[in-house]
Amino acid sequence: MKKNLPPNPLTSLKAKIAKYLLEDEVIMNWSILNKCILILILGSLVHIIWIIWKSFILLSPNLWNFVHLPLLKLQLKLDILFCCLLILMVFPCAYWHKKRWAQQWLPYLSIGILVLSLCRNGSMIGVLSPATMVSYVSLVTVGLVLFNRKIVYYTLVPVTLFLILSNYLSLQGQISYAPLFNLSTSPYQNKFWVSSMLYFIAPILIICLILFEILLSQWRHREQLIQHLSQIDPLTNTLNRRSIKACLEKLEHKPTKSYALVLIDLDHFKQINDQYGHNKGDETLIQVSEALSQIIRDNDVVGRFGGEEFILILHQSSLAQAENIAERCRQAIQALHLLSNMGDIIKVTASFGVAFSSTETNPQKLLSQADKALYEAKACGRNQVKCYRERLVEAKLY
């Protein structure tokens, strides 16, 4: 006897993470203050990376000649200050996340503090350095994805003006370019400067790439979900009329037309709604769709064609096979166990009209034939299967 093995914790964790990232918590749908919290946390991580770099320089006397040591010490203190400030800003964003005034002003304050700290570090390592440019482009792109454009441009315009002005003043010799470093030659000939740029760029790129991957995965999942919902009837979880029409159009262009259509209409469905309520009517439709889905083959199609009308597309099926499947579906619907709120048995039956394709029959004409067969089934007393048999010999059915 096979024993039930305990669930793998790692697999369970991966499933929870995937569900969180792709389904339940789409980042683009977060509230604006939750997005601010995310940016503040990422900004504090970047500051921690800077603190580690500057602390490493201070603890390595052999590297002191590559930097302006007093300025490095000052910048380390400012990094710690801004890191603490960014972390502290998380608390008001979380505490007042439902307050209208907080939603209006805290995003500007949070992003303003982050951008101010980034501009300060950018001017220290060179406004045209790769690290500064990567940070500039990455933050603008992430900001435009997550936030209202007004908030992004509120910080983008002064930052851009600051970078242009700093670069102009450094070209005029009025301020030092990359004052944190001792650059006697071209920066790109200084191995220490180049390695420092790589150190600054790597975490920013990794963080932004991870964030973009999450956003892209969520966007793709949402697009697939929207596409799925546009094709599915929300109540019965079967194909809707639009999707059925698309399936029939595909069949019209196929070289082989060996298929059958089955139209199904629930008998006296209006009486179920009137006597037991629309909730019981919905429950009836759901159970009928489930019964149909269990009987048809994997390559067949079931859809809701109207209010209480369903349709089956049976691929590569003879008339006899289609009639047999329809009869099994009729029996399954008749055997449904539905109870009213008072405990009364709700009787459910359905009438079926079957039509088989021939080389001269297009899907729309076949649909009309199935409808005629369905009308005959209802005229003969309902709860039965009728097949459209006109021109049966010409179609060479078997």
From TrEMBL:
Gene3D superfamilies: 3.30.70.270
Catalyzed reactions: 2 GTP = 3',3'-c-di-GMP + 2 diphosphate
GO molecular function, one term: diguanylate cyclase activity
Domain GGDEF, chain residue ranges per copy: 257-390
Keywords: Membrane, Transmembrane, Transmembrane helix
A matching Pfam family: GGDEF
Cofactor: Mg(2+)
One cellular-component annotation, GO: plasma membrane
Designated name of the protein: diguanylate cyclase
Species the sequence originates in: Acinetobacter bohemicus
